[in-house]
Amino acid sequence: MRKVAKFIWKEFIYGGHLQCLGIVGITYISGFLLNLRTSWEILVSVYLIFYSIYINDRLRHIKLDELTNPERVKHFKSYFFLIPKIILFAISCLLAILFYIDKLNFTIFSLLLLFFGLAYPIYFKNLTKKLIAFKNFYVGTLFTAATLAPIIYYFYAPDYSVLFSLVFFMILVFIKSILMQILLDIKDIESDKSLHLLTAPILIGEERTFTFLKISNSLTTLSLLLTGFILRLFPGQMLILLFAIPFNFYSYKLAENQNYYGYVLGSGEFALWLILILFAKMI
User: pTM of the full predicted structure?
Assistant: First the structure.
């Protein structure tokens, strides 16, 4: 039982499930702001899309990851021969759900998101050798696209006030996604150097990157949430996301002390958002 529990925990930490729950959180909060019910079909579809993207990326870079993520690589190697089948199964489940809901607009949206996610390590990652932090902006765009899932699913045409709220939330998600990826780039400095990628930690150094993250993350969270509330773009429940600020500082402290869980917590911020919003709705 201990071995099973240990494997499940490692899979949750290393297998991208926390990040995928975070994307589910982004989608759920988007529906909350739009006053749309986020059905299980939307949330599971988004989860399967990003899980397929994540595990495919890990499969393609498993040898390179040994430089900076040996424990994660060790975990993936324990079921390496199953990974292609897992990806195929996840995509098959996604296709089954899309067939079940029978919504052409959402199907096209989902398949495009899946395509651009799977295509990144094959066609787009090398652009980071020429364009500074291209990887961060690319991933940030994919994360932000998840906010559109409810509006596309219901083919909903919001009025200008609701649309402006969504756009403001998308800006918040986009910036926070980029900052999250910059944090994760710190642990990948050695592997990214070997690929000649132009990431922020490589260009300005680890210490300056942490300083930049502490300042920019706090300012982004504080300014956008308060502005959104003052302009009545966000309901009062959204202010609970201000608790992400001490969460960010704690994850940065762990990461600075070479604790891998600092990066795990940092990558799980959007999952924290989901928990906080669900709690705010109950009180």
Answer: 0.92
